[in-house]
Design a protein that fits this description.
- This protein has 348 residues and is α/β, with parallel strands linked by helices.
- Helices cover 44% and strands 12% of the residues.
- It contains 14 helices and nine strands.
- The chain has helices spanning 2-11, 16-28, 30-48, 87-100, 117-130, 145-154, 168-174, 181-193, 211-224, 250-263, 273-278, 282-287, 301-304, 324-332, and strands at residues 51-54, 56-61, 104-109, 135-139, 158-160, 197-204, 228-233, 293-294, 337-339.
- The chain has a six-stranded parallel beta sheet with strand order 2-3-4-5-6-7. Strands 8-1-9 form a three-stranded parallel beta sheet.
- Helix 9 (211-224) links the parallel strand 6 (197-204) and strand 7 (228-233).
- Helix 2 (16-28) packs across helix 3 (30-48), helix 5 runs parallel beside helix 6 (145-154) and helix 9 runs parallel beside helix 10.
- The protein is globular.
- Bound molecules: S-adenosylmethionine (SAM).
- S-adenosylmethionine (SAM) binds at residues 70-71, 73, 108, 110-111, 139, 141, 161-162, 164, 203, 232, 234-235, 237, 274, 309-310.
Length: 348
C-alpha cells in the first residue's frame, strides 16, 4: 500500500483498482492514511508554503428551485426559512469583508429564479467597479451558457459547481427531479471554455455512495483538470429524505482530500465548512490533508442560520469573517498563517 501512495505522489495518478484499494485501506489503517496525508501536505507546501487563502462567503439566497435529496434548501422543504439578500446587503458584506482583508468574495446560493442575468450582472458589475482588485467567485448552480458568459463579462472570475457524483446511477438517485449528470457536466465544460477558474467536488458518505463511486469522482476531477476541488462529508438535514442517514466518515473524507491534492498539486482545495462542522478539529485536519483554502462566512448575521443546507452548520467563530484573528491563531498552532492575497490558480 505504501508503494501506491508513493506512486500517486510522484505521478499524480493511479488506476481505478489501486485507488479503490488505497481508499479502502485508509478507512482502517491509520498508518497508510497518515502517510497519504503527509505526502499531500508536502505537495501542498511546495506550491503554497504555509499560507492559507481565505474566501469571504456571501450566501445570496436560500430559495432554490432544485430538489436535491440531501439539501436543506431543496424546494420541497416547506419548513425551510427563505431569504434573499438585496444588492445593498451584498455590497455591505463586501465593504465589511474588504476592510477585514478579504480579496475573494464568493456569491453562493440556491437556484433562485428571481436571480435574472440582469440582476446578477448589475450586482457583479457594481462589485467589480467598487473592488477592482478582488476575485469574484460564483456558486449559483446550473445556468445557461449565455448566462455564464454574461456574468463573466460583468466581472466574475471563478465558478464553483460541484459535479456531486460522477456515477450516473448515483447522480440520478440523489437528483431524481434534476436535469441529469450530463447537463451538470455540460455546465462545467461551458464554464471552463468561457475562461472561468472552475471548482468541482462531491460529498463523502452520501446515501448509496461506495468507495468505487469516490474513485470515479476523483478520476473525473483529475481528467477535467479543474482549478478548485471541494470535498466535504455529507451531513444530514432532518427535513430532507436523507435526514436519518449517518454523516460521512471523517477519515474517508480526509483520504479523498489528500488524494485530490496529490492528483492536482496546483489546485485550490478548501478545508470545507462541512469538515469543520463534522469535527471540532476538522478544519485543521483538512489542512493537514493538503487543503489550502478556508471560506469564512461573510453573510449578514441574521441570515446565517437560515442558509441551512445541513444542520448545525458552522458559521460563527473561526468559520466567520469576523473571527479571522481566532482563525489565524488556530492556523498558527499547526505552523500556518492566513495568506491575504487573492490566491488565483497558478499552474507552475
Ligand atoms: N446551488 C448551488 C449548487 O448546486 O452548486 C450552490 C449551493 S449548494 C447548497 C453548495 C453545495 O452544498 C453543494 O454542491 C453540495 O455538495 C453541498 N451540500 C448540500 N447539502 C449538503 C449536505 N446535506 N451535506 C453536505 N454538503 C451539502
Amino acid at each position: 500500500m505504501r508503494e501506491l501512495v508513493e506512486q500517486l505522489t510522484s505521478t499524480g495518478g493511479l488506476d481505478n483498482a489501486s485507488l479503490e484499494a488505497l481508499l479502502t485501506q485508509c478507512a482502517t489503517d491509520d498508518g497508510v492514511l497518515q502517510l497519504l496525508r503527509d505526502n499531500a501536505v508536502r505537495t501542498a507546501q511546495k506550491q503554497f508554503g504555509h499560507g492559507i487563502y481565505i474566501r469571504g462567503l456571501i450566501e445570496l439566497s436560500s430559495y432554490c428551485h432544485q430538489d436535491c435529496l440531501y439539501c436543506g434548501l431543496r424546494r420541497s422543504n416547506r419548513s425551510a426559512e427563505r431569504y434573499r439578500l438585496t444588492m445593498e446587503e451584498v455590497m455591505a458584506c463586501c465593504r465589511e469583508g474588504y476592510a477585514l482583508g478579504f480579496r475573494t468574495f464568493v456569491l453562493q446560493g440556491g437556484e433562485d429564479a428571481t436571480h435574472s442575468d440582469a440582476w446578477l450582472t448589475e450586482l457583479i458589475s457594481m462589485m467589480r467597479t467598487t473592488y477592482p482588485d478582488v476575485a469574484i467567485t460564483l456558486s449559483l448552480g446550473e445556468r445557461r451558457r449565455d448566462s455564464y458568459e454574461a456574468l463573466k463579462t460583468a466581472g466574475a472570475n471563478r465558478y464553483l459547481l460541484r459535479h456531486e457524483a460522477a456515477n450516473e446511477a448515483l447522480y440520478e438517485s440523489l437528483h431524481p427531479a434534476g436535469r441529469g449528470l450530463k447537463h451538470r457536466l455540460d455546465c462545467i465544460r461551458d464554464l471552463k471554455s468561457l475562461g472561468y477558474q472552475v471548482g468541482m467536488g462531491m460529498m463523502i458518505g452520501v446515501k448509496g455512495q461506495t468507495i468505487s463511486h469516490i474513485v470515479e469522482d476523483l478520476q473525473l476531477i483529475k481528467s477535467m483538470e479543474c482549478e478548485m476541488v471541494g470535498i466535504g462529508p455529507f451531513l444530514p438535514h432532518h427535513a430532507t429524505p436523507l435526514g436519518n442517514e449517518p454523516a460521512g466518515d471523517l477519515k474517508l473524507t480526509l483520504a479523498a482530500v489528500a488524494i485530490a491534492r496529490l492528483m492536482l498539486p496546483h489546485a485550490l482545495i478548501p478545508s470545507t465548512t462541512a469538515l469543520a462542522t463534522l469535527s471540532p478539529t476538522g478544519r485543521l485536519e483538512g489542512i493537514l490533508s493538503g487543503a489550502n483554502v478556508v471560506m469564512p462566512n461573510l453573510s449578514p448575521s441574521d441570515v446565517r442560520a437560515k442558509y441551512a443546507i445541513y444542520e448545525n452548520k458552522a458559521s460563527w467563530g473561526k468559520e466567520a469573517a469576523e473571527g479571522l484573528e481566532a482563525l489565524n491563531k488556530e492556523l498558527q498552532t499547526i505552523g500556518y498563517n492566513i495568506n491575504y492575497s487573492r490566491g488565483d490558480y497558478k499552474n507552475e
